[in-house]
Amino acid sequence: MIPKERKYSKVWYLVGLLVAGNLAVWSAVFASASVDYVRFVALDIGQGDALYFRTPGGADVLVDGGPGDSVLSKLGDVMPLGDRTIEFVILTHPHADHVAGLVEVLKRYEVKEIMFAEVEYTSATYVKFLDLVGEKNIRIVRPALGQRIFLDEATVLDILYPVSGRFEKAPKDINDSSIVARLSLGQSQVLLTGDAGKDIEEFLLRAGLPLESEILKVGHHGSRHSTGAEFVERVSPEYNLISVGKNSYGHPHQDALESLREEQILRTDKRGDIRFRIYPDRVELLEN
After folding, report:
1. Taking the C-alpha atoms of 265, 116, 175 and 248 in order, what is their torsion angle to the nearest 10 degrees?
2. Domain Metallo-beta-lactamase spans what residues (predicted)?
3. CA distance linking residue 16 with residue 80, whole number of Å
4. Which helix (H) or strand (E) holds 82?
5. HEC readout, 39-72
6. For residue 221, which of 75, 62, 45, 80 has the smallest C-alpha distance?
């Protein structure tokens, strides 16, 4: 069965993205919610990415799934007991250290909607992922620059890259098909970069897109091909989050680390799961 695709209206940054600066707007929203913050956990799943969010409205969101099934036990720890539904899943790009865990998630959880770009890539793991999406008839959302997705009444996700949801030709480096998005709650933001490299960072800078964020998920596990100094300066993060495990690639690379302020660097290989509460007016790092 061919899965359905969902289309969202586009809100272009030239005329939009004036997200309500008055925090009083959110008071009515939070009055009916059990919490007034987004729970954000960078899951320690080894060399790969898996990021979990739970919105004030109770939506579970998973960005990437890591390289294997360890994401399953992690989800069991962070999701409410008995909750087997994930409202929104994002696959930033089809490399195994991002998609393999999602194959296991799709087998065991009900996923309402899933976002990924259409790009030519034929690994066995990615093909299995596509097969499962089709078999389970999960609604597909294609990313596109300017798209705004409301995860609940208070939490929004703005797509900054790719320009359209379909790559006519796969990038030479498939990492550069990565979805880049900014999650916002009030005046607090998290910039999600997948494995986007410096070419994509430069595109974002040239386009003049809003990048400022309290948390930067550092691109490509801190490789030397990501995290340019000008990009970091524009984002101006309070926390630099590197999802990384034991590897032979030299991640994170010294060049990337030098672009970041050392006291702001948080690494999953050193801290384990990294937990935040994202409030409309501040971000709080939780101790493990």
Report:
1. 60
2. 47-246
3. 35
4. none
5. EEEECCCCCCCCEEEECCCCCEEEECCCCCCHHH
6. 45
Local confidence band at 258 (pLDDT 50, 70, 90 cut-offs)? confident
Tell me: the pLDDT tens digits for 175-187? 899 999 999 999 9
CB atoms within 10 A of CB 76: 10
> Cα(77)–Cα(248) distance, rounded to whole angstroms?
29
What distances in angstroms separate CA 203 from CA 87, 147, 190, 230, 233, one per listed residue? Answer: 30, 17, 19, 12, 15
How far apart (Å, rounded) are the C-alpha atoms in residues 117 and 180?
11
Neighbours of 4 (CB within 10 A): 10
pLDDT at 145: 97
Q: Determine contact, residues 181/196, Cβ cutoff 8 Å.
A: no
Domain ranges in the chain are: 26-275
CA pair distance 23, 91, nearest whole angstrom: 31
Q: How far apart are CA 174 and CA 1, in angstroms?
A: 27
Return the DSSP state at 157.
E
Q: Is the pLDDT of residue 14 over 50?
A: no
Q: Which residue has the tokens 């971000």?
A: 283
CA nearest neighbour of 179 among 271, 88, 81? 88
* CATH architecture label of 26-275: 4-Layer Sandwich (3.60)
Rounded mean pLDDT, 250-277: 85
Q: Work out whether the CA dihedral 147, 152, 153, 155 comes out positive or negative.
A: negative
- Other beta carbons within 10 angstroms of residue 104's beta carbon come to 18
